[in-house]
Design brief:
- The strands form three sheets. This protein has a four-stranded mixed beta sheet. A three-stranded antiparallel beta sheet has the order 2-1-3.
- By secondary structure, it is α+β, with helices and mostly antiparallel strands.
Length: 248
């Protein structure tokens, strides 16, 4: 059986291509020997059965890993951002807490701060929005009631003249001064009102001589007529006349 020279050459070529040694001689740049796994082929698309597709597969695998790791980290970040530790609760302070608030204040705090500090010391309690709204409504009504009472007292004190008698010497010098406490007692007796006891802000703000309007520092020590400014609240002030007479 005879073969043509072309067929013979084709068969020899196929045999050479099936041999790693022969192929390496034929094209060294595209072959990676099994004993040298760290070598890299300059041609990624050659398939020889010895791992020449590894570069392409590794690149694809690396892209998948990077994508998966990115998704993993993004999920973790979302979980942290929505964690329960970042949520605050509404509480009402039952005591003055330095750096936090005063008694009666409604504030937002973290659950950890409430459970670890405020609740064990009974310094605060949790309140709902409904409770806060109800308390504010009651507080507003109480403030309005106090304001009405303050205005009524202001009207009652307007153009009032209080007469106070004390022992005095021949030249009109009093044996003991007339101070704010005595004046307030005289006013409360003449104009009875619950605010005298309830409102601690009511006080004599200023004393002056009725004739020359000279401000008097301290107690009144002479017989005569004077003017007292009575502070009922931060926004309400009333003037009353004070007449100091010699006791017979």
């Amino acid at each position: 059986m005879s073969f043509s020279f072309k067929k013979f050459t084709f068969i020899i070529s196929l045999l050479l291509l099936q041999s790693p040694v022969a192929f390496s001689l034929y094209n060294k740049a595209s072959f990676i020997h099994p004993a040298s796994p760290k070598s890299h082929s300059s041609v990624d698309s050659v398939a020889t059965g010895y791992g020449l597709f590894d570069n392409i597969r590794n690149k694809s695998a690396n892209k998948v890993r990077r994508k998966d790791s990115t998704n993993l980290f993004s999920k973790k970040k979302k979980k942290v951002a929505g964690s329960a530790g970042s949520t605050k609760i509404q509480v009402k302070l039952l005591k003055d807490i330095a750096g936090t608030g005063q008694t009666g204040s409604v504030i937002m705090v973290t659950p950890a701060f409430f459970n670890n500090k405020l609740r064990p010391t009974r310094s605060a309690r949790m309140v709902s929005d409904e409770e806060v709204a109800a308390e504010r409504s009651q507080s507003a009504a109480a403030e309005q009631s106090v304001l009405v009472a303050e205005r009524e007292l202001q009207d009652a004190l307007a153009d009032t003249m209080v007469v106070i008698k004390r022992k005095a010497g021949p030249e009109g010098h009093l044996f003991g001064g007339i101070g704010p406490k005595i004046i307030m007692n005289a006013l409360s007796e003449k104009h009875p009102n619950e605010l005298w006891k309830k409102n601690k802000k009511i006080k004599v703000q200023e004393l002056s001589d009725a004739v020359n309007e000279k401000i008097i520092k301290g107690d009144i020590k002479e017989i005569g007529n004077f003017i007292a400014k009575i502070k009922i609240s931060d926004d309400i002030v009333s003037k009353v006349g004070i007449s100091i007479e010699k006791e017979a």
